[in-house]
Amino acid sequence: MTVDQHIELAQLQQELSTYIGLGDNSLVFNFDEHNGKFKLHLITVNPRHNQSFLYNTTEGLSKVDALRQMLIYVQNQKDKENSYTIQWSLQGENNLHTSYFSAKNILGALDKLYYDRDPNVITVFNVALNPTA
Length: 133
Fold this sequence. Notes:
Elements: H1 5-20, E1 27-34, E2 37-46, E3 51-60, H2 63-77, E4 82-90, E5 97-103, H3 106-114, E6 122-129
Antiparallel strand pairs: 1-2, 2-3, 4-5, 4-6
């Protein structure tokens, strides 16, 4: 019996959502196909300040494979990365926001903050490496 690819995609997306602990409207699964490979950009949407940020990017031979790679990252690799707190505001706003990112280094955390947006729209006030437990 073969599993319908759409059902498998939906199951993996639900598993990721449950594992990460975000609601149904808080994750965006953005797939790009290039040279026969699929790149998955998993994007989180924060309902408090209504902004989206890159969670992580994985690559696979199919959409299912890219989702499986993301699940492996979430279950194993994420905890091996550093945790950063970034305080920022949008241009023209007086609100200071705080967001948290897992990344290999500060530049990786900032890349996730600036993903798919004009970097001139966000002012970063502070980037801090969070202590490990």
